[in-house]
Amino acid sequence: MLCTALMAAALLGTVVNSHMILKQPPPYGKDTLDNSPLAADGSNFPCKLRPGAFQAPAGETVARIGESMPLSFIGSATHGGGSCQVSLTSDLQPSKDSKWMVIKSIEGGCPANVAGNLDGGADLEGATVFHYTIPEGIDPGQYTLAWTWFNRIGNREMYMNCAPITVAVGSSERSANPEENVVLKRSASFPPMFIANINGCITKEGIDIRFPDPGDDVEFAGNPANLAPVGSAVCTGVPTFGGDGMAAGTARNAYLEYEEQIPNYE
């Protein structure tokens, strides 16, 4: 019995030490960044607040507007995948009051489309490499990028890593007409980051959540049978903070043109 308990403890330690962290773009505070989820009470939201949380990585990540950028991970405990978002804030040391703009949502299969965990340890780089694009409407300048993840299987958790990026003008020239640029900037609208499992609103285990307001860039990367039914509650409970990201509070299809590909499992 003691032997069994020791084996179980060793296995648990392996899983805990193999949780996912951001590889690309290189995250803030890598020397102090562990691979655990955010605290259940939200005390270290955002960006896993800690001493050295915003220590800059060695190199600069430059993302040009309209160009594809890699989003990759290290680790093996993918917890059956789940749903992720990529968000930006102009705050270089974000706080709970920071305003986040979602630029990409991945519904299902993030960080990998597997039933459980990947085979490997904490240094494994076998998870899916996704890509994001800085959209028009984001001004050139310095930003903090956040990767957030809601795992499908296991404890109800929210993972979050942050990275500094510099947004630069894309290769295609902007309009020479300043009035057109003003219209473009005003028409760009980005939804707030979805927050759950650290604020009293808890997601359901065993499903890939559909974000209430996923934005325009949405990728379906998992098993359609695992997607939350359209119209179902994304989480249950009253959020103590981060309620802006709840939108209507129910899952919905991001794109109508995907309805034939992504069945509505009621």
Automatic annotation (TrEMBL):
Leader sequence residues: 1-18
Keyword vocabulary terms for this entry: Signal
Name of the protein in its database record: Lytic polysaccharide monooxygenase
Organism: Petromyces alliaceus (Aspergillus alliaceus)
